Amino acid sequence: MRSNPNTAVRLLDLPKGCSGRVVRLAGDNSFQNRLREMGIVESAQISVLNVNGSVHCQVKDSRFGLSRAAAEEVFVELG
Fold this sequence. Notes:
- By secondary structure, the chain is an alpha+beta fold.
- The protein has a single domain, classed as SH3 type barrels, CATH 2.30.30.
- The chain is built from 2 helices and 6 strands; from the N terminus they run ββαβββαβ.
- The protein has helices at residues 29-37, 68-71, and strands at residues 9-10, 19-25, 45-51, 54-59, 62-67, 74-78.
- The chain has a 6-stranded antiparallel β-sheet with strand order 1-6-2-3-4-5.
- The chain is globular and about 30 Å long.
């Protein structure tokens, strides 16, 4: 069964400790490609570690920070 990206929330809106599955990347092609190079791909499980000036995330064994603007362009389905 395929998920509905219209029910997704922005990564920026997830509180600390929550995780979800990436269902859509927004922004221009070069931005989307950069996210994919970091491992943020459609169907990847992503966890929010902390939110302050930036959003600290984990995908598999990689941890990194995204700007708030970048985190607004990543849409996830909770779970």
